[in-house]
Structures are given as structure tokens and as C-alpha cells.
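Both lines are given unchanged directly below:

***
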Amino acid sequence: MSQTAENSASSVNCVRIGVATHVTPGFSLVGNEALQDLLLAVDGCVESGDFKLIIDFSAVQTIDSMSISALMDLQDRLLKLGGWVKVLGHNSMIGEIAEITGLAEAHRF
């Protein structure tokens, strides 16, 4: 591990390991406030030059359509910068939602 940064206001942990940054939200992605907390942490990673993100959903119980759309937009944004987003640690319900919406294909669920 080379760098650890924790956004205490939003409980999103960002840790750079090798070439990728692991982003771990400690909450479900439902509602504008939760999504904004995640996006602020991701923006901080991108501003630091971290374009390869692994988002760990192990603490995420649910996800709404606004968050799904934001993850798809994030993938497009990072691809243009030479990076990517991968999502891991999700529960079966989020996995099913990802399959139905096409999020799984774009994010290697």
C-alpha cells in the first residue's frame, strides 16, 4: 500500500494498492446524499491521477437507479482518461440488478 486516504465525513475509504485505487463506501447507494458522498471520493481519486478504480460493494446492501446511471457515466469518463471501474463484493440482489441494467457488462461484476 502506498497511500491511504479516508473521507471521514462520508465514510468512503480510498486506498491505492499497486496501479488501482480501492474505493469502499460504507453505506447503501440510495438517494442523492449517498451518491454524492461516493462521487466526491471518486472525484478526489481522479484529481490525484487515479484512473483505475475498484469499488468494493461489500457494505452496500442496495443501489438505486441514480447510482447505477452514475456508475455507467463514471466508466465512460474513466475510459476516456485511460482507466476503468470494476465493482466487487456485491450481494446477489445488486448482481441481479447489474445484469438486468447492463451495469454488469460495463463494470465486470
